[in-house]
Design a protein that fits this description.
The structure holds three protein chains of three kinds.
Chain A: H1 2-25, E1 30-36, H2 40-56, E2 60-66, H3 70-82, E3 89-93, H4 97-101, E4 107-108, H5 110-117, H6 128-134, E5 144-149, E6 151-156, H7 157-162, H8 174-186, E7 192-196, H9 199-210, H10 217-220, H11 234-249, E8 270-276, H12 280-286, E9 291-294, E10 312-319, H13 326-339, H14 342-352, H15 359-367, H16 370-373, H17 379-385, H18 401-416, H19 422-445
Parallel strand pairs in A: 1-2, 1-3, 7-8
Antiparallel strand pairs in A: 3-10, 4-10, 5-10, 6-8, 6-9
Chain B: H1 2-29, H2 33-37, H3 51-58, H4 68-99, H5 105-114, H6 120-133, H7 140-148, H8 152-162, H9 166-174, H10 179-190, H11 192-207, H12 211-216, H13 225-232, H14 241-261, H15 263-271
Chain C: H1 11-39, E1 41-43, E2 50-52, H2 56-62, H3 65-97, H4 103-111, H5 118-129, H6 137-146, H7 157-185, H8 189-197, H9 202-232, H10 234-240, H11 252-262, H12 266-295
Antiparallel strand pairs in C: 1-2
Classes of the chains: A alpha/beta, B mainly alpha, C mainly alpha.
Amino acid sequence: MKRREVIAASAGLAVSGLFGTRSSAQSARTPIVWWHAMTAANAEQVNRVAADFNASQDRAEITAVYKGTYPDLLNATIAAFRAGQAPHVAQIFEVGTGSMLAAGKAVKQNWQLAQEAGVTIDPAQFVPAVRGYYSLPDGRLASMPFNSSTAVMWYNKDAFAAAGLDPEQPPATWPGLVSACAQLKAKNAIEVPMMTSWPSWIQFEQYSAIHDLPFATEADGFNGLGAELVFNSPAHARHLQRLMDMSRDGTFRYGGRGDAPENLFPAGTAAIMFESSGNRGLYSRTSKFRWGEAMLPFDPAVIAAPNNAIIGGASLWAMTAPNRTAEEYRAVGALMAFIAEPDQVALWHQKTGYIPTTEAGYELSRQQGWYEQNPGADIPIRQLTRGHVTDNSRGLRLGRLPEIRTILEEEIERALQGEQTAQAALDRAVERGNKVLRDFQRSVRA
Amino acid sequence: MRANWLAHAVLCCGVLLFLLPVWLIFAGSTQLSHSIARGELSLLPHLSGLDVYRRVLLGPGVNGEASVPHMLMISACMALAIAFGKIAVSLLSAYAVAFFRFPFRMVAFWTIFLTLMLPVEVRIVPTYLVMSDLGLINSFGGLTVPLIASATATLLFRQVFLAVPDELMEAARMDGAGPWRFLVDILIPVSAANIAALFVILFVYGWNQYLWPLLVATDPRLDTVVVGIVRMIGVESLTPWDEVMAVATLALLPPVAVVLLMQRWFVKGLTEGEK
Amino acid sequence: MERRTIFPGRLLPAALVAPQLLLTVVFFVWPALHACWMSLHSEDPFGLASVFVGFDNYAALFGDPLYIATVARTIVFCFAVASISMLVALPLAVFADADIRGRAVYRTLLIWPYAVAPALAAVLWILLVHPQIGLLGRPLDRLLSLAGGHWDYKLNGGQALLVVVLASAWKQVSYNFIFLLAGLQSIPRAVIEAAQVDGARGWRRFRTILLPLLSPTLFFLLIVNLVYAAFDTFGTIQAMTQGGPAQATQTLVVKVFRDGHDNGDLGSSSAQSVVLMLGVIALTAAQFRFLGRQRH
């Protein structure tokens, strides 16, 4: 028994020993670790970026490591920081931005990193909706924009045609959408007329931005930790009521939180799917019908011309750790600058479906003819750059926002089940969410 | 006979209850990823799709990182280390508690026992801190050692040892056997079935770990196969369902093989202590 | 229970217990104390600032009707999972223990699912019951829509709870089967044969002879299943419903994980962990008292 155990343990040691030698052989270059949450094709692109960076210089060697979903990654980063083992670079989803900004000496904000590393990362080069989300009130960048998406409306052109709707003219307003769904249902063109992924992000956060409605006070939290949620306005309640009415008619079916329903669009189950623009790759490979991508509809009773949408996705944060050398930070700064180079931005955008984060990357893609070859691929970036950024469309800067999203979705679910009215659902969500905000405020002030 | 007919009917239903869902995974592995995502999963495997196994076994691996055989090897090493480690550690401590008197004997026993079922979610942050202080993050030791600490096995061995008749021990001492010889020559052979049963339980436990390996091993070359599967089920991206199901089928084979090969001892070893 | 003969010596037994004790203290006791400490503090996720708040976290917890509802839901969930998985396993074990042709094959086919990983079980169940892509979910949805309803566990809390209960119980059936089979096999043949001579057959034999003799095993399994349902179902629930819709499938461990891991609320999460630990300790003590009574 004992002997066998020793054998097993030494086999294990031999295995880890092997790995140890491999990494020490690379020690001539400064090793840099980058934790990311990308999978499948997008993960290949992260690895490609890392390989390109390694080939572009000879002082640092970057390793990209997948660390699970966005929440897993955020948590692993926090745990690692507490243990003094934080990765050099962490890809943190946009709703974690509020928490990261309160992380004090755990992070090196982008402007500071660039200064120390002696590289230039000009905030002005980024698309305003992206820049706004990740910068401080005075315009300095807090984190490095990386994979940004926005929400769009995917629709099935074949189903539209079958219902006698114009496949090239998707509805641009909510009243138009409601009647289109009714027609899809009446003509029995498809199983479910409309579904939505990310209920809170798309139907409330994005809805607030394009209708120039505040989601929270203090400019959606940008001006201070004292922000209060205000997404229980009559306009918000009317929107939830609309979804509830459609759910009762059978023209809308709730498909769960997050991206749970995303596959029901390529499956031909849902005619209209609200989803991230980052799904272009998935949908073009799996849909066996003609489909289109359209901007999010707006409600003319609330706003005459819709404002810019906000972004989703993630940005890169430089993490600190004890004994981390200036050379390591220099390498991280070099990586950040590399990622913002126009050809890198354009390549990432075209390979993944995320938007080009810089004007130069967008321009380069245009010159390369990307949008002629892929009609509709510029819908997300056009939706992000229309109108002008206001206090209500810069993004959300709230601590523990993922928890607030869950709370809102829980209350929406109860409303859709007929357990409470639209207004009551939003009132409760605001009340519960504000408690979370106050807790967060207390914990970071402590 | 009526009773036999009933027995067969009930048992067949039970067997189907388990075989069907797992068959679904195997059948799914041979079908096109896109049709599975569209809900067109069929119960009939497509023989032409068996090629997927060659692809996942010989291919470069998930995300171009660790290959599937490599992940299977890590899983096997981890499961074996946990199983043998746990058996050794708890055999010794149960032996001490059952056959010796020493100060704080019961304190030691209860310390081990009361912490038995602390869920991993509760202690994950502090445990991670300990691991990093010990320099075990990203190492095979970090993957296994914290999981070796558990009291289930100690409890079972104690039960088994308490059931060993005093006469056996007296006879052994009469023959001049010391504690070590008694353990090796008598106790271990006597509890061989229990050890085998525990081995099955612990191997399966180790093989099926998910949360801990994901957190503690940041090096993709330390990925277990279960972590690899969950990693393949993407977010905001394309899930290669056929490959996921093929790897899932492969991941299922070793623990099932262990359970089946040791089935005889498995059931027997669970009863002996209780008699 | 104590044995009469023991080995002499103090150093050797101490050395034998040492590895186990060391592991326990380092990986269990210390983290548990850490959780207690954190439950009395309010701390930002990065651990940069921490302030003592006394029992505020506990007070907030028990003042929250949603937490109380989660406690009640967890109890219902645990008993549902435990009883369903045991009720399915019991007849299977009894019949597989009977003298019928091919029982070895049946046993093998019923034991192996023990090896299925919880992470895989959830994937498998999603493929079965998903309302739009599931093999059973699609026909079920069509069937229910005839009656004006929907099969939609993503929105219907009752259906969601049903699905996670079934998936969790499914995973546990073969565990119960193995232990019940072992328990049945440890019943001396003579007792059963004697009962047969008395003419006890079928249901009566089961009720009057087997069931009483199995009761220690059943009680042991009840405790183990309750603990399983409380803790080890986390992966299944997380993969299938993430505790939703609303909070219909949120159990205590899901909430601990959600508050600590996803929400970074370490104070509240630690307080919940401490409450859970006390629950486990109480359950374990109950089991010991019962087993102790059985033996004497």
